[in-house]
Amino acid sequence: MSVSVKLPSEIHSVYENLFKQKPEEGTIHLVVNELRRRLVEYKLMDKTFREKYKMDFDEFKQKGIVEESGHSFQVEEDYCDWELAIDGIQTISAELKKLAKYT
Fold first, then answer.
1. Which of 43, 57, 51, 58 minimizes the C-alpha distance to 89?
2. How many CB atoms lie within 10 A of CB 26?
3. Cα–Cα–Cα angle for 27, 24, 2, nearest 5°?
4. Can you tell me whether residue 45 is helix, strand or coil?
5. Is the distance from CB of 82 to CB of 46 less than 8 angstroms?
6. 99 with 31: CB under 8 angstroms?
7. Is 88 in contact with 35 (CB distance < 8 Å)?
8. What pLDDT, in 10s, does the model give residues 59-91?
9. Is residue 1 in some structural domain?
10. What's this model's pTM, rounded to 2 decimal places?
11. Is 39 part of any domain?
12. 3 lies in a domain?
């Protein structure tokens, strides 16, 4: 399904003069690049937590690290952030697969 977006003329000229693309192509390019940037960010978060806890997220949950820590604020915050990162990796990877035909 195609969606129509009204862009200011200044944006049109940026696409044409700087990106050398039509707005439709440029928008796809921008969306895909933003998804890739976020994917890298989430993967970095996952890597940081893996290194910090010396395990993956599933093992972290199974071992009950949050409970083991006495529900410390830092560990609970890490749990929430790590869960967000894992979900983000899965969601964005799926979205990038859907958009692969346009790149």
1. 43
2. 19
3. 105
4. helix
5. yes
6. yes
7. no
8. 999 999 999 999 999 999 999 999 999 999 999
9. no
10. 0.87
11. yes
12. no
